[in-house]
């Protein structure tokens, strides 16, 4: 048996397994067609269930509890946000050899946002800023001032120091190591967030945005949702936007220099982390993270 000291092996999550999990735990949906979503997420396997639902299964233990956060907070956040967000419907249990909780949510129509369609869009830049402003202003009435519920706090940027410096050195032949080191030092030295903590998405990048008709329509994957420094959500400025639209985004958010520098640091660190993990096996992620890192160095 797997224990806390013996991690579960990575399960093979095929459509047949997802079908059996759905049929045994939610027989009311047994007759609905099940279709894998490609590309799926790096953290989750996703299937569309019928026309109105999606099934999302964690790929590894580190993200297995994220769905509880989404079940707790997305229904409360949704009315306050200008873009659609997933609406959780049911929580599935570990079974049939699959070791973690999983979820069923309402399906959100749309296509994944792309640099080709939105990078130079001032409208998209303003829309992203508007979403973050609304998220940061969310103030649930039952949350005491200064009290961050369990699971919503986040590690500081400095915790990534060792891994980030190692990645800079490892990929010195791919990215400008002196420029990356200078940015990383500046991000760590920048003054921290000295205002009340605010809500952040936590994984706000191109892959978690949907569009309909070329316009932003939804934000997905809130597993990184938390309360603290909003700088980490500035990653979107470097994964999606161009220098021109980035200026629109920054002005709409009214981001000060220290926060912007920390945001560049978050983009560099997370980009290098994903590049380290996936570049050799996924050309799509390699291209996305290469752009993220390069744009963060530009600023």
Protein architecture, described:
The chain has 299 residues and is of the alpha+beta class. The chain has helices spanning 15-25, 66-77, 115-118, 122-137, 161-170, 177-189, 236-239, 243-253, 257-278, 283-298; strands at 34-36, 44-49, 53-58, 88-92, 102-106, 111-112, 198-200, 209-212, 215-219, 226-228. It folds into two domains: 15-106, Phosphorylase Kinase, domain 1, CATH 3.30.200; 111-298, Aminoglycoside 3'-phosphotransferase, Chain: A, domain 2 (Alpha-Beta Complex). The strands form three sheets. A five-stranded antiparallel beta sheet has the order 1-2-3-5-4, with helices on both faces. A three-stranded antiparallel beta sheet has the order 6-8-9, covered by helices on one side. A two-stranded antiparallel sheet has the order 7-10. The relative contact order is 0.13.
Describe, in short, the structure shown:
With 299 residues, the chain is α+β, with helices and mostly antiparallel strands. Helix content is 40%, strand content 14%. Strands 1-2-3-5-4 form a 5-stranded antiparallel sheet, sandwiched between helices. Strands 6-8-9 form a 3-stranded antiparallel sheet, covered by helices on one side. Strands 7-10 form a two-stranded antiparallel ribbon.
CATH superfamily membership of the largest domain, which one? Aminoglycoside phosphotransferase (APH), C-terminal lobe
Count, helices? 10
In spatial order, strands of the major sheet run: 1-2-3-5-4
Determine the CATH topology of the largest domain: Aminoglycoside 3'-phosphotransferase, Chain: A, domain 2
The domain tally reads 2
Gross morphology:
globular
- Count of extended strands: 10
Reported for the largest beta sheet, the result is:
5 strands, antiparallel
CATH architecture of the largest domain: Alpha-Beta Complex
Radius of gyration: 19 Å
β-sheet strand percentage: 5-15%
- How far from one another are the termini? 49 Å
The CATH class of the largest domain turns out to be Alpha Beta
* Percent in helix: 25-40%
């Amino acid at each position: 048996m797997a224990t806390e000291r013996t991690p579960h092996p990575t399960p093979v999550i095929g459509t047949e397994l997802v079908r059996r999990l759905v049929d045994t735990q939610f027989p009311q949906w047994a007759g609905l067609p099940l279709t894998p979503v490609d590309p799926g997420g790096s953290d989750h396997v996703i299937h569309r269930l019928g026309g109105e639902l999606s099934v999302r299964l964690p790929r590894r233990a580190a993200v297995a509890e994220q769905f509880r956060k989404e079940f707790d907070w997305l229904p409360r956040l949704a009315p306050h946000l200008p873009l659609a967000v997933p609406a959780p419907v049911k929580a599935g249990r570990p079974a049939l050899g699959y070791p973690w909780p999983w979820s069923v949510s309402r399906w959100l129509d749309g296509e994944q946002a792309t640099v080709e369609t939105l990078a130079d869009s001032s409208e998209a830049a303003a829309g992203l800023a508007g979403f973050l402003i609304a998220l940061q202003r969310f103030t649930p009435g039952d949350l005491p001032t200064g009290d961050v519920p369990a699971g919503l706090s986040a590690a500081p940027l400095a915790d990534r120091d060792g891994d980030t410096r190692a990645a800079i050195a490892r990929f010195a032949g791919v990215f400008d190591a002196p420029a990356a080191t200078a940015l990383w030092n500046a991000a760590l030295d920048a003054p921290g967030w000295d205002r009340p903590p605010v809500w952040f998405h936590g994984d706000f990048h191109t892959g978690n945005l949907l569009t309909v008709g070329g316009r932003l329509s939804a934000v997905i994957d809130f597993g990184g949702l938390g309360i603290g420094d909003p700088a980490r959500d500035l990653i979107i400025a470097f994964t999606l936007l161009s220098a021109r639209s980035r200026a629109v985004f920054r002005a709409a958010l009214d981001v000060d220099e220290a926060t912007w520098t920390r945001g560049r640091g978050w983009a560099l660190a997370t980009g290098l982390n994903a590049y380290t993990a996936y570049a050799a096996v996924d050309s799509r992620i390699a291209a996305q993270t290469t752009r993220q890192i390069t744009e963060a160095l530009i600023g």
